[in-house]
Fold:
Amino acid sequence: MDVRDSGGVTSAVPPPRTQAADADADAVPETRAQRSGRRSIAVALLSGAVGAALTLLASRQTWADGTASVAGGELPLSATGSDVTGVPAALAIVGLAALVAVFAVRRAGRLLVSLLLALSGAGIVASALLAADDSGALDEKAAEASGDAATTIGDLSHTAWPYAAAGAGVLLLIAGLLALTYGRSWPAMSGRYERDGAPRPRKAPPTVDPDRPEDLWKALDRGEDPTREA
Structure:
């Protein structure tokens, strides 16, 4: 610190701090757990979002094709994933909501939401695989087309979309397992708007006394200009 005497007036001016010194002072080494937590968040968010979107897409695609015998000949029919079973699409919406809610709750709430996310993914896998060879939806359409309840579908064939939905469920399951494993270290939404929903008032910056060198240092560390008048 430089102290100069000019005409009987003594002034204390703190020496300038270099950018390198500031960087060294602010640099905090990242631990291995922090790196793992950051990567797990990215993987969980990507897996969960892609899994839910792919499940909804697969539910709108054709899962089975066939023909029904009618008076005029053979009538081609097809059934989408939502015709066969509505479970995967419903669980995809539940899983997507759980993925968002993971960051809005803490402690036991986060554990329960993470478990719900994992169960949503497992449910999508199970329901999609069980419906992969299902012909019930096409049999119903064949009976409606022919007017005979005993009519069944012929030349039945299935597409790969049920297995795509099952793969999407695996992605949601992975997101849930990551949340269960690393969720305790994940950040939560800011608490500034909790309780009554109003932002908490900001504290006024402390007054800087230009005659006190320690106040000047603290102002500089906060990024303030100590020479600026209030």
